[in-house]
Amino acid sequence: MEATTAAPDRLVKLGLAFRDSKTLLSAVELGVFTLLAQQPLELVPLAEKSGVHARGARDFFDALVALGLLERDESGRYSNAPDANQYLNRNKLSYIGGELELANARQFGPWSMLTDALRTGKPQSGARGTEDHRAYYADSAILENVARGMTGGSLRAAQAIAARFPWQEFRTLIDIGTAQGCLPVQIASAHPHLTGGGFDLPALKPLFEAYAEQHGVTGRLRFHSGDFFNDPLPTADVLVMGRVLHNWDLATKMLLLKKAFDALPGGGVLVVYERFIDDGRRFSTAGLLASLNMLVLTAGGFDYSAADCEGWMAETGFLDLQVSSLAGDIGMITGRK
């Protein structure tokens, strides 16, 4: 038997990482970071204001300190760590906690059944797994949770696309599968000459319009209602599909790319952004786990490499394909008609 001097600490830490994750997700759900953004609080008032029972309060908040999410001064007052204060305060436009709220409410439970998904190849997400999004979105609480999650997951990428794409060369854009409209709102805010909007199921319209109004761009952005399986896509100089294609099987991916190609004018551009898997499929932990997330949640979705997407776009007819990195683990591919 081969001897080893390696300690098992890495394996144990990885195996129990769900405890770290759920502690953060619960803190977001309970509004701890939003509460502490107002003022530092001692243990008892923090527990009372956040609705945490006395039995678990001290361990919970001190665990957040140990995780680097909260700080505690010598007088016992808790406050947010700088990054938590910036990104997990619901009252800030930089809030990305919507993605974590979505993960907590819609993904954490199904992921406990990953083994079943691996054995059967079937989603473990109930209504989401049927791909009947009209029925799924009929529940207003689910609708708002999903829309906020899409905003939280898209914000940094949207800001990067607004800064790095040559928008001065174009006049109009439409975001396909826009949810609240995070991407067109960020781009329109940064480029006053642009007009356009977002395309999604009719149920998202009030959330889109409220978000656009909050950011002062309602005069230039309009919501386009439709179902991208049954309706033609609206036309614009630039169409964007952000974290959309990974929800579907290959045949559907190709269908949506073809519909985007057909909707674009000559010289128009499609932008696709995702958590791409590295071409060698060795290092992109985030992309590979995102693909497992599609296994757990959807009937046929999967994530893919930039090379995969380039091949599909080239087969559809797109030219001048270019790949670039955006924020964090998200990348972007552009292709011209």
Automatic annotation (TrEMBL):
InterPro entries in the cross-refs: COMT-like, COMT_C, COMT_dimerisation, SAM-dependent_MTases_sf, WH-like_DNA-bd_sf, WH_DNA-bd_sf
Family annotation (Pfam families): Dimerisation (PF08100), Methyltransf_2 (PF00891)
Domain O-methyltransferase dimerisation: 16-89
Domain O-methyltransferase C-terminal, chain residue ranges per copy: 111-318
Domain of life, per lineage: Bacteria
Keywords, ordered alphabetically: Methyltransferase, S-adenosyl-L-methionine, Transferase
Protein name: Methyltransferase
